[in-house]
Design brief:
20 helices, about 575 residues, alpha+beta, six-stranded mixed barrel, 10 strands
Length: about 575
Amino acid sequence: LVFAFITAFVSAFIINNVFQITIGQRLRELALLRAVGASGRQVRRMITVEAFVLGVLATVFGVLGGLLVARGLIAAFDAAGAGFPDTRTVLQLRTVLVAAFVGIGITMASVIVPSRRAAKIPPVAAMRPELGFAAMRSRRLVAGAVVTAIGVTMFLVGLFVRPGGTAGLIGFAGIGALILFLGVSSLSSTIATPVTRVIGWPIEKLFKVPGAIARQNVARAPRRTSSSASALMIGVALVSSTAVFASSLRSSLVDTLGSAISADYIVTDSGFQGLSPVVSETLAEVPELEAVTPIRGISGQVDGSTKNFGAVDPVAFEKLVDPDLLEGTVADLGLNELLLHEDPAADLGATIGSTVDVTFQNGVEQTLTVAGIYGNSTFGNWLIGLDTLAEVSDAPARDFFVIAKLADGVDAATGDAAVEAAMEPFPQAKVQTNAEFLDSQEAQINQLLLIITMLLAFAILIAILGISITLALGVFERTREIGLLRAVGMNKRQIRRSVRWEAVIVSIFGALVGIVVGTFLGVILSLAVPDDVISTLAFNPSIIVVILIGAVIAGLAAALYPSFKASNMNVLEAIATE
């Protein structure tokens, strides 16, 4: 639903942009209506009705398209082996109502500003279409700066202050990000001309006349350029922020696990069902291993909040993991005692010897004494001993994973053979060395990044479609100009090139703004996460290169239809166009 919202938000930019352009192209028509007696309210209503009809049509086609996508998703899951029951497709009334609310609502909201502007332009001024909406541009810088400042403030408050807890985090940070995008979109029109001139300079040098025309067309309409690029900017910003956050998380994870875990082997369950305690008991009997501990868990209520408790063998755990102990000892963790991370310790005001009342998930109430405070939360914020877990729970134990360390003097090859032989009766147990485990964790982060990027790709595809629509409208608007260029000797190939490179310049501009905004958001998100989760900022320059290359490809794809349309105009009819 979050990604669906992002896609709808991007679509709103495109709808608004299209109405801005089309109304600008119809100023003379609207002026004539005003001249023969139409009021500003009637003009506004006419445009609103147009938007309503388009919203209804889009909703109908969207629901029908959603049914096809749903069947495609089911087929994809079936092909992957996660078969769905063979049943009919279910379309509930609430789905149609929500779709109508979103589809019609976004369209109507997007047309508010264009319709008000069209209604306010005096008839005489509107008969001079060269004026367009120029009178409105002077306010954009101030308005954009104010909106951007509000968005940044709300985003920072949501992440660092978190008023109202999780709800405040989501509300302030999420809404702040949306307001930030609106502000940046407005501000980008003030820098569009100089930035696109710089982007277009090498294109002009390489492709001569087509490149020069493309560069001039983009630079002379900064507002349209920024509006066209805004949708792409949002998608790229989200991808960039995710990349910074994932890179920082991956780097911190490698540093933390590499320094905190001295275990040689990590055993996990490939089926994600948890391991039987027999696995750790079997490993404990292997003479080549010095220390073995399972990591089990149980949840409990502390001051009305659910906490996850990890259970370990204290003696073995001290040899296998460095939790960055600040106070107390690990090996002396006794019955009904607790090791507490410094963050919850600060929240509770707990120190060595403090007691914490816990109601475990099975209803057992127990008072735990704080025996130590640590700074590395690799294995969670709340740690108890295995004997304490046995005291408060008689449920069958399942281990999240088991960690083990080779005894002194045992080489890796000998240890590998011994562990492999011991785990042979447990095919579900996946044995990894420390390095392999780190690689698998990095792979999971990369996989998550890929999934997020693929979901954001829908928003980026819609943004590309928006650029294509804007270009097509621009070609229609410049029909006479294109006809004159053809009349003085410009051939079809040069026309197509000029339109294509115009699209590329717009796409690169949107990508650059998106990278800057996304990097800022990624850095702030990384800083907002506790240091024991993300301790270092990391950037992935290859992502920027991929985004810029993708922007060029996106621009070329967006220009396919507009360039074809421009190059195939009838020259005489184009010159005669009013």
